[in-house]
Amino acid sequence: MPGKQEISAADRNGPDYKIGEVAGLLDTTPRTLRFYEEQGMLTPFRTARGTRLYSQEDIARLRVIQHLVRLDVPLRTVRELAVARPESRSGDEASHKVFALLNELRLDVEEKKRECQDALRQISAALQLVEQCFGCRNKPTSRGCKGCPVEAQTDKSRLFHLILDQGKAMR
Question: N or C: which end of the chain has fewer CB within 10 A?
Fold first, then answer.
């Protein structure tokens, strides 16, 4: 866990924000911010009375954490990235740890990118099929629209396993 900050609040650059202000700014909860602190991902300044004060740098760090979490990066990986340098004995050790973590992260993000590209193709194909139903007056079921030209093309998008009525398979 990173060491306690030794500077006073007055010596810090820029305004400081209390936990509730930061939670509101980042659309999260104070509990989430405390969790990130417990995990060693950040160390906000503490006043003599224990009030957490967050700097602009703390907020920037939290935004990176949130971004990685939104990308479904495991918290374990986020934590490892956050503590790799401070917990290392040398720059060489730190750089090798960070390099390995970033390389693993890059591979994971590339895989997610491929999955997202496939999802976009499936969505585009489904949009083209659904658009063919514009103006159709039949009931949108396999029984209500016998011989539906779209239903014959549903193999073009896996999304139609979700979109089509469930009763279709029970005919």
Answer: C
